[in-house]
Input
Amino acid sequence: WKPRRFIRLAIWSLWLGSLWHVCVPESAFCRMRASASLRTSSGQRTRSPSISRERAPAMTWILSRRAQAPDVAEANAKRPLVVIAGLGPGSPKHITREVKKQIDSVSEVYARIAKHPALEAFPKDVKVNTFDHLYEKEDSFEEVYSMIADKVVRLAQKKGKVVYLVPGDPWVGEKTTQLILDRGNSSGVDVQVLPGVSFIESTLAALRIDALPGTILADAYELVELHHLPFEPNTPLLISQIPNRPMAGDLKQVLLTAYRPEHRVALVHGAGSAQEVVEWLPLHKFDRSKRIDQLTSLYVPANDDSTFASLRDAMSEYRDGLELWDEVSHKQLAPALKRAAQKVMAATITDDDKKLAEGLAEVLAHTVAHLQLGEDDSSFRVADILSRAEEIVGKLLGDKGDPKTTDPEES
Output
């Protein structure tokens, strides 16, 4: 025997024994040791040599982790859960398999609204609760959504699991999704969001149009809070969630700031369902439709009117055609702007609206030229000028609405 070889074999044996203790579960470890019992030639039982637990300190940690793992999993399983699932745009055939699986796993579900064609196809043994009664009690939709979110989270805390159903896709035009997520995070309730088919695909199919290029998606609830349309009217617009005629009327007033009254728009009711209807109407009449309900959306085609963006594009093209534009200065442009402003002042004195409109057009055109020159020279950004103009607007007529109380130099 060579001492070095013997020592090496001994070290390997100790290491393998320690590894065996760490990797094999405790119950299996005990069985294996019992089956490893040997009989000596005298008939007495003896055990094979093994490494004690003290020689494998890591094993204690492994076994303790194994003992704790079921407890951790059990604790997680006990956490309340809200499953937010999309019902699709209308027809039951648009419900995804995962959503259907969740519906089949419970005896009752909670739907934001009762008027959805997919709900009619649910099994009779699944109870459907809705929140329609809250729409009648509260003064604003924000309050309704907040109450729904609170109610859903409380139900999850009480029942352990709640399946909450919303029209379309939970991530498209559904405000309660984020509210429930926020409340779940603050109250120890897990939230799982299952996507569905949104209203967008079925609406575009009903209209037989392509979403590209440039279709803008907007929410009626947000638009009615504005005084002017925040989008350029030369791009198509698809507006979701027009639940009733009063809101349609408020939405119409906002749209009329950017489109002509006779501009034709399309109301799409129940997109993707057997009750799907498309109505093409003049903008100033669409709010009179008697079909408007919670499954109604509005499509506004682009128009050919000029916009601030198109005016800036025209200015850029004009600049590109000038060989000496790099030599132009604000000082050279100033006299033309002054003459345009004088035309505006003269038109106000004579009360001539036609000349006033012409003068304002000239002022705007010369202003855009200064904006273009400033951007080319990196002197300022148009966005900064617009931001400053918004600040000045609040001071134009003073606190009492009297022009005489405001000094332009102080603005």
